[in-house]
Amino acid sequence: MxxxxxxxxxxxxxxxxxxxxxLRAFLFEIxxxxxxxxxxxxxxLYDANTLVTNNRYEIVNHxxxxxxxxxxxxxxxxxxxxxxxxxxxxxxxxxxEKQAGDxxxxxxxxxxxxxxxxxxxxxxxxxxxxxxxxxxxLQNNFVGDDTGYYERxxxxxxxxxxxxxxxxxxxxxxxxxxxxxxxxxxxxDDLDRSMKSKIVNLVKEDIAFQAFDDMWSPYAEFAS
Length: 224
Known about the structure:
Elements: E1 3-5, E2 10-13, H1 20-32, E3 39-41, E4 44-46, E5 69-74, H2 77-91, H3 97-106, H4 115-120, H5 122-126, H6 130-135, H7 140-143, E6 152-155, H8 159-170, H9 193-203, H10 207-211, H11 213-216
Parallel strand pairs: 2-5, 5-6
Antiparallel strand pairs: 1-2, 3-4
């Protein structure tokens, strides 16, 4: 489900690797008046991700939100892709032999792939890990294909606009923490042209490019 603020009849849609963990914690503070922190119950750790599971857009009951104010948070799809690789493949090692060895062997794929190997065998690696498959789905899978569904779509690289807007609308002074930052940072500018083109073509149908023309313009020359 998206994150709901019933008191304000506001609902927020978001995707994995698009600031969702931080957004959850921020909206929790909006709703409760105090900052979220990880906690344990009978030895089990609960973090901000446990507050809401962002399910696929198609299985959300949209009728219940027909009279609500609807918002989305999206991220530059190329930056999201590179962050996903750094965080899920690098930091969390979700394509390691330990975590995915049997499926990697089944699909004849090397564990712990570098970026080039991952991109060149993208569809295969997604079959080796449910988490990889989920985190690399286009944002359309979580926020839909229709920008007109939303009163406003915010972008992660200008997230202060969302913070200021929601605080003003809700009469709050909540802060948004920066969470899920693990992994080596990769720059699109440091990649060779061939790799740039491959990544852009994997994500070019993402709704974020439909929502923001200026987000697409730096990548247009690499699309085919």
